[in-house]
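[Automated response] Your request has been received and processed.

Submitted sequence:
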Amino acid sequence: MSQSNFEKIKELFFLKFKFALTSSIATLVDIGLFNVFSYLVFSDLEHRAKISHILSFSLAVIVNFYLQRKFIFEMKRTLNKTFFLALMVSFVGLILSTILISYLDGFPFFHHYQYILKLIVTGVFFFYNFYFKRYVFEKRFV
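Generated structure:
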């Protein structure tokens, strides 16, 4: 492997590491709010997982955008366009993750342990978010 390829891999790894750190903060916001909504606010509702997920996810998207803009990606588009595209990526992620939440919530174990359900879905969408958000900010996937 040539030195330049090694440097590119190293740079991509470091970028993913920083992305993971800032995403962890947004994820803590997401999971914390999800648990508050799921166990305290909407505890009596049949579809509490979906409602809680949509609300907590939406608020975490705003936190995540700010952190990505400040600490991770170099913005190659205008702020408005970047924010709009990031919202679109997040919206598609919300739809897909809500479908997965709904499916997994049908299992009694996950219905009872909502926090495990949320952790699994969050992990599944890490790489989707990294590559599409990188494209949104920097106009490139890799």
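Summary generated for your ticket: Residues 3-138 form one domain. Residues 3-41 form the longest helix (39 residues).
If you did not submit this request, please reply to this message.
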